[in-house]
Every structure is written in C-alpha cells, then in structure tokens.
Amino acid sequence: MLNLNGIGKRFGGLTALEGISFNVGKGSITGIIGPNGAGKTTLFNVATGIYPPSEGAVKLEGKDISTLPPEGRARLGLVRTFQNIELFGKMTVLENVMVGLHTQSSSGIFSSAFRMPWQMSEERRIREKAKEWLAFVGIPELEDVEAGTLSFGKGRLLEIARAMALEPKLLLMDEPAAGLNSSETAELADLIKKIRDLGVTVALVEHDMDLVMDICDQLVVLNLGTMLAEGTPREIQDNQAVITAYLGEE
Amino acid sequence: MKSDKLKFLVFCLVVLIAPLPLAGGYLTSVLIFVGINGILALGLNLLLGYAGQISLGQAAFFGLGAYGSGVLTTMYAVNPWLAMIIVAICVAIFAFAIGFPVLRLKGHYLAMATLGVGVIANIAFNETIALTGGPSGLSGIPNLSIGGFNFDTDLKNYYLVWSFALVMVLLSLNLVNSRFGRGLRAIHDSEVAARVMGVNARLMKVQVFTLSAFISAIAGSLYCHVMTFISPTTFSFHVSVELLTMIVIGGLGSVYGSILGALLLTMLPEILRTFHDFDIIFYGLLLVSMTIYLPGGLVRGIPALFRRLMPTRGANA
Fold it and tell me: For tag attachment on chain A, is the N or C end more exposed, with fewer CB atoms within 10 Å?
C-alpha cells in the first residue's frame, strides 16, 4: 500500500530522518514507535506531503507521490489525523465531517450561490453521509455542537470521523491515544480495528505500548532518525537493540 | 433553514420601507451609500471573515469598477449595463492573475501586498489624466436606465443600489452554507487540516479573492452611475481601512454583519459632523471597545448582551 524508500529529511544542518525504508502492507495495522525525537512525526509529515523528503521516494500503490501536496494525496486516498487535533473549531461537528466529504463532491461557486438543483441534492447526500460517519465513531448526538468546544476525547473521535469521510485507502494516525484516558483508549482500539475491518489500511505513531501491542500487525521502530528494527510486535519485544534504545545500556 | 428564509424576508421588507418616511430627503442619499458600502463590506467579509485572508486593497477594485464604467460610458459611449459586466469580468480576471502570487503570503505580508495594490491603483487613477481626468476627476457619467426609465433621483437610485445589495446578500448566504463556504471556513480555522482533507486551499483563496474583487467592481460601477462624477480620493487607502472597520464592527464572518457595519460607519460621520476633526477619536474608541467587549461584532454581540441582561432583569422585577 504505502512504500517508503530511502527517505531522508534535513532541516538546514539537522538530519531528522535518514535511510528510512519500509512497506505498509495492504489491510494491515502498522505501528511506528520510538523514543521522543526519533523522527516519527517528521516521517508522518513527509508521508502526507506537509513537506517533501530531502531524499528517497514515497509511493502509494506503486505510484510516486513524493512531490504531491497534501490535497493531491487526499484525492488518492491518503489521509491523516493530527497529534494535537486539528479541527475546524468554529464550525459545527457535522460541518467538520462535511469538509471531509470535499473530495467526493464537486459544487463550485456558481452552483452554490444560485442553489442549483444538483447542488442541493449533493448537499443533502453529503449531509446524510456525514451523519453516518458521526454514528460510526459514536458521537451522532453532537452534530450541532461547535467543534472547538469538544473535549479532547470527543475531538479525537470527530477527527477520525472526518478522516474516514474521505473513504481513504490509507489512514495515518499521529498518536491517536495521546491525551485519552484508559477507557477512551480501549474504545479507540476497537474503533481502529473496526476501521481496518472496513478494508482501510492503518498506520499509526504511538507511545502507548499496550495499544500498539494489542492492535498492530507490524511494527517499525525509529531511533534518532534512523530505522532500528522492523517486525511483528512479538519480534520487537525481544529485540535487543530496541530494548537498549528504550531503556539504555547496562 | 426556515428561519434563514424568514430573516432574509424581514431584511428585504426593512430595505423596502426604510426610505419611505424620509421622503427623498438628504438621508436617502446617505442610505444609497450604505448600500454601496454594504456591497463592498460583504465582498471583503467573504475574503477576510470567512476565508481569513486580509485585503487592504479593496479600494483598488472599487476604483477600477468605477473608472472602468465611467471611462467606457463617457468616452466610448458603451451601454452602462454592458460596461458594468465587461468591467466586473476584467477586474475579476485581473484579481485572479495577481491573486496567485499575492495570496501565497500570509498575515502582515498579505496585508502589505494588498495595500500596495491599492496604492498603485490610486496613483494610476491620479496620473492617467487622459483617461481618468486625474485629480480633478471624471464627470458627465450617465445615470443608469432601463428602457425609458431613468435612475435620476435619490429614491430611484436607492432601490437600484439596494436591489443589487439584496441579491448579493442572498447569493452570499447561499455560498457560505455550501461546499465552497465550508472550504473557506476550514482554511480559516486550520489550513493544514483543510489541505489534508483534500481542499485545494491555494486555488480557493484565489477564487474568493477574485469573487471579492468582482463584487467590489460592481459596487464601483454603481457608485459612478449614481454620483455621475468620480475622483481618486474616493478610492484611497482610507476606504479600504473603513471597510475593514465596518466588518470588524458588524461581525467578521457574518453576511448581515457586513451590512450592519456599513450602516453604522456610513451614518456615523453624519452624526459626528458637529465634532469636526475630533470624529477620528470616536472611530478609535469604537474600534478599541469593540475588539475588547464584542470581538464577534455587533451581530453576535447584541444577542449575547441580551441573553446576559434578560435573566437579571427578570430577577429584579
């Protein structure tokens, strides 16, 4: 599904990533873990087109998307959520999800201003779709609430609903469990599995090891901008290099 | 949805009967300018209030509209309605072209760049004397007319300008509650998230900039035909700032707020006239107190104020 080949990213003289290569298998849940400052979020930003890689290539289903901006990648079915939640705070919850349906609708300035019949029916269609996604993540009752007033946990669910509205092939989640309590994290784990069962490939950056070990099929470990290990959760748990990176040497 | 339609109908009704008690007096002509400023403020509000992109160069598009119509109708005897359409489209194309480089900038830099556009346009109005008449202005612009009906009195012009304003209010209301409007508001709240959702932020910003220029040009054409005389001072930097003040006071991101702001700021100088040059102090006080006490503008502030006052009044009674 997603193929990273020799990714490097430098900010001036600082090398944030170097020689990162791995595959995210179709239909899998891949976890990207590593200590703070390992380059996980930078890798995400490169994968989603927030900034281009200094070297190497990002491929989605075999297609090179290294230089494509985020909106172009969204159209190809690659979408992400953010570590600190990036909602459209002054819009309602339902409207947030409706923005997620942007790529699946086409009305422009003229048809909207003049309320053409096809624009009206498209509007009804995406409104219904948006409601379905709110129900999917379990917050249908919040549709008229201003998104900026949501709690962190509900905001995260909304972000997932909004991302899922794009009907992505690949969903990248940046620390989805950050700021959630343990019961919310357990619900999140179920939700992520439900998303995988819809046929969406998931890759996530995460610090919560219980969550990662529970839901991930494959793990990639980063340390200081390089790849430390790759394998199943069980293999990673027994990997000496990983243990050293996390706990330090004796 | 139903209350939105009702609100618009009430608004239409108010506009319809407002000039009747004035019997075509001086205040009618003031209300014409409220309408023109309202259209201009609405254009700016779509750009700044909804998409979050500032422009201090609205006077340029306003002026290009006015001078375009003025020159075409006086020197080339083009039909005024046709001229209005041609000019608005040309101004829109111009805005679209400069929009791509200008809207790459953000915040203060965008303000500076659009300010530059406004200043350059004003210099052009002053210096291209052969076309515009320069500082002494362009006169003899015909009134608009339909068939044999000539818009030659204040009352007729009032209804002319306000029918344009009402149509623009309606179209804007439709627009902001659509896929396009949601895209703009999304860009305002979080551009990076909007782009990740597949919103082509760069194109949309240019589109709304173009739309706002188009609307300003129409206001310019109306202005020149209502006044029959135009000069560069009307399209100076001062106007751009006044428009900004209007939408801040009326309500950023509110269609009706644009009109309310235009009403207040157009009427205020009439009221403050007795204070001569000290009126600038009132503007300052108004802006400062608005941003401190009613940051959402009057359209949001007044209902909120009522909600706060009502229960206490009930308790006292």
Answer: C
